[in-house]
Specification:
The complex is a heterodimer of chains A (about 230) and B (about 210). Chain A is an alpha+beta fold. Chain A has helices spanning about 40-65, 90-95, 100-120, 155-170, 175-190, 195-210, 215-225, and strands at about 10, 15-25, 25-30, 70-75, 80-85, 90, 125, 135, 140-145, 150. A 5-stranded antiparallel β-sheet of chain A has the order 1-2-3-5-4, covered by helices on one side. Chain A has a 3-stranded antiparallel β-sheet with strand order 6-8-9. In chain A, a hairpin with a 4-residue loop joins strand 1 (about 10) and strand 2 (about 15-25). Chain B is an alpha/beta fold and about 210 residues long. Chain B is about 45% helix and about 15% strand. A 5-stranded mixed β-sheet of chain B has the order 3-2-1-6-7. A two-stranded antiparallel sheet of chain B has the order 4-5. The chains are: A alpha+beta (about 230), B alpha/beta (about 210). Chains A and B meet through helix 1, helix 4 and helix 7 of A and strand 3, strand 4, helix 4 and helix 5 of B.
């Protein structure tokens, strides 16, 4: 892998470990999908290889769609390692709560626009959480971690993608979940226009499929009376 | 952090600010349901006091060959319906040994559940993981989760089977806690709610 300084662990994620290093004079992030002992070797290898190959492809597609993502420097499929640009900035997860209401809204509108740009080009992120968004020093939002993403232009895939964003807000930013999601939808609408409504309707349908949902509860209550 | 896996639920949740928050869940069918339906299709007989799906665990012990099946993780959520459909159609094709199918179904389904649990653990950095529900008794699932818990310096605890499945003590204890903390419902306003989401209920007794 050429000249590289010693790597320091940035984050031990579930799916991969992230390290920071200097590589040929550049600040890089090394994403290593380490083997998981809990699953069978064959399945483990399939999953790690698939994600290592697809993630850089999707990041490249995202860039073409106008969504900032780190530059990919090297992909080592055999060892499931990706070396990419280090983005100087802060995770949206860590700063969202500290913003004042209108700053938070502006940021969420921007996030909504980025998601819409992906969807407009048939790119599904697959893991839209505020952990996977970085606000850099110039106010630009980068999307990272496309490991669970896919190329898919279907309404279903877009609906699930946005539904996951909503769910992530409800579990991690529960104080501001509703206002943030509304702002994201606002940004999403501004880019996708007519199609946005179909995606939002799809989300409602997806939510109804779950077992414990308010709509179905209502239906049940009409049936069951004690 | 709690992983609740039963015939009706597949939920990864953790307590924060007065409520249990749902970090991951199934987008369609529950883990226990997936195993139960496959067991029924395979013609397994139910043993007393055990979910039908427990027969899949027994059969899987004899499985050696991993058959490739759909693996669907979406963020911290997962989808099991495609996996079940694929496993059922291979079963009816009759080309594979039943033990291998049971083994492969379990390995895929449990790897998915374990992956989303690991994601939630890495995200929240919780130091304890509780496994409950009817599928909690599965030894293979316990093994996978203990490996993940260990890696994230978290401790795995498993709820004993008699308390992990539906039982009166669980309901009565929740009622007693509610009463003690002033969550009261007059008799004439009480009703059956089969579809109450865990993250819609206030839990004043937890910290």
């Amino acid at each position: 892998m050429g000249e590289m300084t010693e790597r320091t662990l940035l984050k031990k994620g579930a799916e991969a470990s992230l390290y920071a290093a200097e590589w040929h004079g550049k600040s890089v992030v090394i994403k290593a999908r380490l083997p998981k002992k809990y699953r069978p070797e064959k399945l483990d290898k399939t999953i790690r290889t698939y994600r290592t190959v697809h993630e850089p492809q999707l990041m490249h597609e995202a860039k073409k769609a106008g969504v900032p993502t780190p530059i990919i420097y090297l992909v080592d499929v055999e060892n499931a390692i990706i070396i990419m640009e280090h983005i100087n900035g802060r995770q949206v997860k860590k700063l969202l709560e500290d913003l004042v209401a209108n700053e938070r809204e502006n940021l969420c509108v921007k996030i909504g626009e980025l998601i819409a740009k992906l969807h407009k080009n048939g790119i599904i992120h697959g893991d839209l959480t505020t952990s996977n968004m970085i606000l850099n020093d110039e106010g630009k939002v980068y999307l990272v971690d496309f490991g669970l993403g896919e190329k898919n232009a279907e309404l279903e895939a877009k609906g699930v993608d946005l539904h996951l964003m909503k769910r992530a807000l409800q579990s991690t930013h529960y104080q501001h979940a509703e206002e943030c999601f509304l702002a994201i939808v606002k940004g999403y609408n501004s880019v996708l226009e007519n199609e946005a409504k179909d995606v939002l309707d799809k989300i409602k349908e997806i939510e109804r499929r779950g077992r414990y949902v308010a709509e179905r509860k209502q239906e049940r209550q009409n049936e069951v009376s004690v | 952090m709690t992983l609740y896996v039963s015939g009706g639920n597949t939920i990864v949740s953790a307590f924060a600010s007065g409520r249990y928050r749902v970090f991951g869940e199934t987008l369609d069918i529950a883990l226990g349901n997936c195993l139960d339906v496959f067991a029924r299709e395979a013609g397994f007989k139910q043993r007393k006091g055990m979910p039908l799906g427990a027969a899949v665990e027994q059969s899987a012990v004899g499985g050696k060959t991993l058959i490739s099946l759909p693996y669907v993780v979406k963020g911290m959520d997962l989808s099991l319906s495609g996996l079940l459909t694929a496993a059922k159609s291979l079963l009816h094709e009759g080309k594979y040994k039943l033990e291998d199918l049971c083994y492969s179904l379990q390995e895929h389904a449990f790897s998915m559940v374990t992956e989303v649990t690991e994601r939630a653990l890495a995200h929240t950095e919780k130091k304890e993981l509780l496994l409950t529900g009817g599928v909690a008794a599965n030894k293979r699932l316990q093994l996978m989760l203990s490996a993940v818990a260990e890696e994230h310096e978290s401790k795995l605890n498993v709820v004993p089977r008699e308390f992990a499945m539906d039982n009166g003590a669980m309901i009565a204890w929740t009622g007693a806690l509610s009463y003690k903390h002033g969550c009261l419902t007059p008799i004439n306003e009480s009703h059956v709610n089969l579809r109450w989401r865990i993250d819609k209920v206030d839990v004043p007794w937890a910290k």
